[in-house]
Design brief:
The structure holds two protein chains of two kinds. Helix content of chain A is 70%, strand content 6%. By secondary structure, chain A is an alpha+beta fold. In chain A, strands 1-2-3-4 form a four-stranded antiparallel sheet. In chain A, helix 6 runs antiparallel to helix 9 and helix 10 runs antiparallel to helix 12. Chain B is mostly helical. The longest helix of chain B is centred in the N-terminal third of the chain and has 41 residues. The relative contact order of chain B is 0.18. Classes of the chains: A alpha+beta, B mainly alpha. At the A-B interface, helix 10, helix 11 and helix 12 of A face helix 1, helix 8 and helix 9 of B.
Chain lengths: 325, 213
């Protein structure tokens, strides 16, 4: 059934994306034409092939090399600036890996968490050590849950796996709430703490992804949808009101004379530096808003959510499944 | 997909706020730089009294006048265009858009009548329309400056030194201070014009996001 469902959409999507009549927002392909503007054309589902590629890209060693090169390039700038530039480079990798419903095995989840945790360590100057330990514990819990999730796919009897999956979906909620709490706390200290809060939000998005996948693997589509939609609302409530102007303002040196020539240069620099950061915030919101989008379509086409995940997990060649809406 | 549609609109509102606040910020800054240039062009009109005793009286009205001249029509356009753009994001924002068209940007700017001291012609005499108090006080201070320098030296001093970049720098500094305190700064009581306008866009964006929720 799934093979038949998937037959027509990819080629049309490819053509539409090339000629501009379609565009990708989060994990959905939407019409960009005047008459159908905003309507959904298809849903994107990353597969095992895509996740293996991501895993390679996110290997910690490669990341460190990338950081060193960028730091060397930005050697004449201040330490804080360098870090923010490096973070901007990582943002792209993370926003790409977080689309759609994760079929992630533990290895990829681990690689993603490594990126998030590594970045937190780099910018943890403003975090008290006691708070840092609490954050570490939350990430350890999340890794353990991801590993349990992965192991359920090896349980031969689905009826025994389902309650474990439900427990994972439920237990990971605690980690999600804690990461949300950390992110909010950081942002209350000021937008200067956004790089740290941002990583908490990455962790939060990954946790939501894990919970959605666990509920889907247990064939609890309605629960998966609720988790995804609630998660979106929480993420958007934290970052939705943050604009580039706020980030740029927070970057300007304290006490700079607003009528001076220096201001113009600092302002231009702040605007340029904040462009990728704001893009990442908006992308994460869109990713979160579209995570549950294929669920009603799957139901309408008679495909269970577990079947869908299984199919994506077994796909080793195509990086993305395209499900017509 | 209702949730994504709502997100589109809320993200558009945030982008709308960014766009207008960036535009206001850069336009006001550029206008400020032009005002400083205009002040610089007027520096040959300054005399020893302006340099030593009445820098702000010389710089402030000139800065304010330049700023108002450009910003008055600019804010008129900002009000209309920002309102229209907001309405286009979501027709539910019609009432809020109308609120923008009613904003009196002019009342946020310093009134020239209250701040502008009468401008002087080249020989330093105060033009018609000066208040008695300003004339008397200005005259006293000018007299004091002349007395301190010695009447004989004053003419030569004026000719030789009035063109000095250092003295002109003092007047330009007074102009920059005026820009920072009244127009472009981020803090103060009363708040400078820039943060007052910024807070209008912030408030409207918060309301708009809640309406589109």
């Amino acid at each position: 059934v799934i093979d038949e469902v998937l037959l027509a959409a990819p080629q049309k999507a490819f053509v539409g994306l090339r000629d501009g009549s379609l565009k990708i927002v989060g994990s959905v392909v939407r019409w960009a034409t005047a008459e159908k503007n905003g309507q959904i054309f298809a849903h994107l589902q990353p597969t095992a092939a895509s996740e293996m590629a991501q895993q390679t890209a996110l290997r910690l060693d490669d990341l460190k090399q990338g950081q060193e090169v960028m730091q060397a390039m930005l050697g004449n700038l201040s330490g804080g600036m360098q870090m923010l530039q490096v973070m901007s480079g990582l943002n792209l990798a993370l926003s790409v890996v977080d689309i759609g419903i994760s079929v992630a095995g533990f290895a990829l989840m681990n690689a993603k968490l490594n990126v998030v945790q590594g970045a937190i360590h780099e910018v943890s100057g403003g975090i008290r050590s006691i708070q840092q330990e609490a954050i570490e514990r939350d990430f350890i819990k999340l890794r353990a849950l991801a590993e349990r999730y992965e192991n359920t796919w090896s349980v031969s009897d689905y009826s025994r796996a389902a309650p474990i999956l439900m427990k994972i979906a439920s237990n990971a909620n605690e980690t999600q709430i804690l990461l949300e709490y950390h992110a909010q706390n950081m942002l209350q200290l000021g937008l200067e703490m956004l790089p740290v809060a941002d990583r908490m939000l990455d962790g939060m998005a990954l946790t939501i992804g894990l919970r959605v996948s666990a509920a889907m693997a247990a064939n609890e589509s309605e629960l998966a949808r609720k988790i995804a939609d609630d998660g979106f609302r929480k993420i958007e409530a934290i970052t939705g009101g943050i604009g580039q102007i706020d980030l740029a303002q927070a970057r300007l040196p304290k006490g700079i004379d607003t009528a001076s020539k220096d201001w113009e240069a600092e302002f231009a620099k702040a605007k340029e530096e904040t462009t990728p950061i704001i893009a990442k915030l908006r992308t994460r919101e869109a990713n979160a808003a579209t995570r549950s989008s294929p669920l009603p379509t799957l139901k309408a086409k008679g495909i269970t959510s577990r079947e869908w995940l299984e199919h994506a997990r077994l796909e080793r060649e195509e990086p993305m499944l395209v499900l017509a809406h | 997909m209702i949730m994504l549609d709502a997100l589109d609109k809320r993200q558009a509102v945030t982008a709308w706020r960014d766009r207008w606040r960036f535009l206001v910020w850069t336009t006001m800054y550029e206008t400020g730089q032009q005002a400083l240039k205009a002040l610089e062009a007027e520096l040959p009109k300054s005399d020893v009294k302006d340099v030593y005793l009445e820098r702000t009286e010389f710089a402030n009205p000139r800065i304010d006048k330049s700023m108002r001249l450009t910003l008055q029509p600019f804010f008129g356009i900002v009000g209309c265009k920002a309102a229209l753009e907001l309405y286009k994001i979501d027709p539910k924002l019609r009432d809020l858009s109308q609120e923008i068209t009613k904003i009196d940007f002019e009342c946020m700017m310093p009134m020239l009548a209250a701040t502008e001291e009468p401008l002087k012609d080249k020989d330093g005499s105060i033009l018609a329309g000066a208040t008695g108090m300003v004339t008397a006080f200005g005259g006293f201070r000018a007299g004091l400056a002349v007395g301190l320098l010695g009447a004989g030296a004053f003419g030569a001093y004026k000719l030789a030194e009035m063109a000095s970049p250092r003295f002109h720098g003092w007047l330009l500094d007074a102009g920059r201070k005026r820009l920072a305190q009244v127009w472009l700064g981020t803090t103060g009581d009363p708040l400078p014009v820039m943060p007052q306008i910024a807070s209008i866009f912030d408030d409207i964006a918060i309301k708009a996001r809640s309406i589109t929720a």
